[in-house]
Specification:
mainly beta, Immunoglobulin-like, 4-stranded mixed beta sheet, 8 strands, about 50% strand
Length: about 80
């Protein structure tokens, strides 16, 4: 997953249970990835920083950038 132009790309990602998703910040501004349900939360990510999370439970995980809350994304985890 990339973060660029204040967008998550792709905005929706579908993966099987057990997948580790890595976000890479390609913007010149910092971002913090935060799941709306609190299941994952990155530290502040400067340019080229990465954050990884392994999804162990099926479901739909909506997240935002807590610095720029207009940035939204979803990870759909399938069995």
């Amino acid at each position: 997953m990339s973060i660029s132009d204040f967008k998550f790309n792709p905005a929706t990602l579908t993966v099987p249970v057990g997948t580790t998703v890595t976000w890479t910040n390609k913007d010149g501004e910092p971002h913090i990835i935060a799941a709306k349900d609190g299941s994952f939360h990155s530290p502040g990510m400067d340019t080229n920083a990465t954050y990884s999370f392994t999804f162990t439970t099926a479901g739909s995980y909506d997240y935002i950038c807590s610095i720029h809350p207009f940035m939204t994304g979803t990870v759909v985890v399938t069995k």
